[in-house]
Design goal:
two-stranded antiparallel sheet; Four Helix Bundle (Hemerythrin (Met), subunit A); 2 domains; about 45% helix
Length: about 260
C-alpha cells in the first residue's frame, strides 16, 4: 500500500491502476479528467462539485440526500422523446427501436457527409473521431450480435475498434492508426446494421427471453451464456449514446470547417 502525504502529484497520469478502497482526504482534483473509471460504492463527503461535467451510467447516485439518477433519466427522456423507445420489452418494441435508430443515424451520416473528409478523422476534446465512432459500433455489433447471439467466435473485421480501456485480446483488432474512407466504414456499418435488423425481425417472445450459447476462444464478450434481451439492449444503448456523442462533436467540426474557409 502506497501512502502520499503532502505530495505534489500535479499532472500525474494513472492508467490501468487499482485504487479501490483508497482514501482521499484534503485532495485537490481540480481540472482532473476521469475516463473509464469505476466509482461504484464510492463515498464523498465535504465535496465541492462546481462546474463538473459527468457523463456515464448514473444509478443510485445520492447527492445531499437526493437520489438524482431518476431525475437525470427523466430529463434525458424529456430532451430526447425517442430515448424511452430504447428500453423495449417485447419484439415489436425492439423493431420500433431499431427503426428509430436507423432513421436517426441516417440523418447523422448525411450531416457528416457534408464535412471535408479529413475532418471526419479529427478528435474533439480527446474523444473518438466520427470515423472511429462508426468503427466502434461495428465492433459492438460484432461482439454482441455476431459473437454472442449468432455464435461466431471471431466475427471481427480489421477495422473493428474496441473501447480504449479494453485489454488487448488475441485475435481482436485494434488499429488506431487506420484512416479508412467514410464510404468504406459505411459499407461495414450497413452490413452490420442489416444483421441486427435480421435478428430483430426474427424475434419471438420465446427467443427474446432465451439465452445465448457460450462461444469458445478469446474475444468479447467473454465466453459464457447471456440473455438475448441483454445483448440486444447493449446494442441499442451503444447506438443511441454514440450517435449523441457524434452529433455533439459534429457541431464542433462544422465550426472548424467554416472557420477554415
Amino acid at each position: 500500500m502506497a501512502e502520499f502525504t503532502a505530495a505534489d502529484l500535479r499532472g500525474s497520469r494513472f492508467e490501468h491502476v487499482d485504487l479501490s478502497g483508497s482514501e482521499l482526504r484534503d485532495v485537490d482534483l481540480s481540472g482532473a479528467r476521469f475516463r473509464g473509471v469505476d466509482l461504484r460504492g464510492a463515498t464523498m463527503r465535504g465535496v465541492e462539485l462546481v462546474g463538473v461535467d459527468i457523463h456515464g451510467e448514473i444509478e443510485n447516485l445520492t447527492i445531499n440526500g437526493v437520489d438524482v439518477g431518476p431525475l437525470v433519466q427523466a430529463e434525458l427522456d424529456r430532451r430526447h422523446p425517442d430515448r424511452a423507445r430504447m428500453r423495449p420489452t417485447d419484439p415489436a418494441g425492439f423493431r420500433e427501436a431499431w427503426d428509430v435508430l436507423e432513421r436517426l443515424w441516417g440523418g447523422t451520416v448525411e450531416r457528416a457527409g457534408r464535412l471535408r473528409p479529413e475532418l471526419l478523422h479529427e478528435s474533439v476534446d480527446g474523444e473518438w473521431s466520427f470515423i472511429e465512432t462508426l468503427r466502434h459500433l461495428v465492433f459492438a455489433t460484432d461482439a454482441w450480435i455476431g459473437r454472442a447471439v449468432l455464435g461466431d467466435p471471431s466475427p471481427w473485421d480489421p477495422l473493428d475498434l474496441p473501447w480504449d480501456e479494453m485489454p488487448d485480446t488475441p485475435g481482436v483488432p485494434r488499429d488506431r492508426e487506420a484512416r479508412p474512407a467514410l464510404d468504406a466504414v459505411l459499407a461495414l456499418r450497413r452490413d452490420r446494421m442489416s444483421t441486427v435488423r435480421q435478428v430483430i425481425e426474427g424475434l419471438t417472445p420465446e427467443s427474446l427471453d432465451g439465452h445465448t450459447e457460450p462461444v469458445e476462444g478469446p474475444g468479447w464478450p467473454r465466453p459464457r451464456s447471456y440473455p438475448i434481451r441483454e445483448c440486444l439492449l447493449v446494442v441499442l444503448n451503444e447506438e443511441w449514446e454514440h450517435r449523441l456523442y457524434a452529433e455533439r462533436d459534429l457541431a464542433v467540426l462544422e465550426a472548424r470547417g467554416a472557420g477554415s474557409g
